[in-house]
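Appendix B. Chain record.
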Amino acid sequence: MKMKLVIFVFLLTTVGFLSSCDKNKGDFTIEFINPVDEAIVSDAANLQIEVKFDSPVELEEIELSLTVDSLGAAEIAPFPIQTHDHVKTKTITQNVDLSGFPSGTAFRLKAKSCKNHDCTEKLEQSVRFTIP
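Structure tokens predicted for this chain:
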């Protein structure tokens, strides 16, 4: 009888451990709060860029870049923004002045981060937006 009780407690503990591990595996997300994809921003001279990174584990090697949306375009200062904070959630906010570009110019905002400490998996997303 004691052996059955020990086995039952062991199985119960194992199931509890495995189910708690699954709860920590949520989705890794990058959310573009501003600007959103295909937006026409209202104020090119004072654009507030805001991107949120959210992970069930600590974030690794976050990078945010902004370029004119054309092949081989150079990054627009102060980008790229890179950070290596060991947090599960990180919001990057940056004001940028794009008023020096011609009306109708399209831009590409890219965000990427490692999904794990070894950086064997990365998540990369981008949005495209234009100025009036």
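Further analysis of this model is presented in Appendix C.
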